[in-house]
Amino acid sequence: MESEIASEHLPFIRIYKDGRVERLSGTEIIPPSLDAATNDVVSKDVVYSPEHNLSVRIFLPHKSTAGENKKKLPLLIYIHGGAWIIESPFSPIYHNFLTEIVKSGNFLAVSVQYRRAPENPIPAAYDDSWSAVKWVFSHSDGSGPEDWVNEFADFGKVFIAGDSAGGNMSHHMAIRAGKEKLEPRIKGIAIVHPAFWGRDPVDEKDVQDREMRNGIAEVWEKIASPNSVDGTDDPLFNVVGSGSDFSELACEKVLVAVAGKDVFVRQGLGYAAKLEKSGWVGDVEVVVEEDEGHVFHLQNPNSKNAEKFLKKLVGFIIG
């Protein structure tokens, strides 16, 4: 019974009849490091939710920590992707990416761990991410529980970013910040290859293949969010095609990054178009890499296009 497979959802997970979940990727962990002698960026893990045993990984450029170089830095809150199912801030792919952009941009970054499906179905990931955002903002008066954030974060320059599922959640964090009047105000959000979807295509160029559409719907409806009344038309997932109000988006500027060979490309472009028409007062910038696929910058970080995107993201944060 223990070894009998109940369902398999490649390339993410295998679920066994005894309830055990086997993640097929995104399970490797890299430790943080405070060794400033050999690292341009130091990092540490800090628990933000004792209730759920969840941490953030904080990244700090060590050249900003010494003597007369000390100064306030822009702050990036990062929400990782992985279909709400796999990966973590401690995965090599995310640890290395955050290290590189922090090194390039000379800012402070807080990478968020959240509970993942199927053990903790949506909305757990959204609730946890919001708890992490509020935890970060508890430092805005300099008296929060974490010294690095108290000492180095410039709360006039706070950004939220994420890719794929994390891009989706970054949008919802900014919407929630507007509804709950989060202060200080978020400066900007970066929505990278966002996992937005719906029962129907958003336009004639969106994915028409029914089998592919059903495959994406299955991940949401059977694994990530089985309790969604509207399935893939849940407003958490169907951000573009639903009647969601964007006017309360609580930031000054938005970067939307899409890849031409990504299944979510039309959704990302549709999101930017909807935002521009929504009555939201702010600046929208769209970055398109036509010949690349989903999260190419994470899959092939040394490529020219990945380096170009990294510069664009860093510029968005420090510009």
Automatic annotation (TrEMBL):
GO molecular function: carboxylesterase activity
Every Alpha/beta hydrolase fold-3 domain range: 76-297
InterPro entries in the record: AB_hydrolase_3 (IPR013094), AB_hydrolase_fold (IPR029058), Carboxylest/Gibb_receptor (IPR050466)
Similarity section: Belongs to the 'GDXG' lipolytic enzyme family.
The protein, known as: Alpha/beta hydrolase fold-3 domain-containing protein
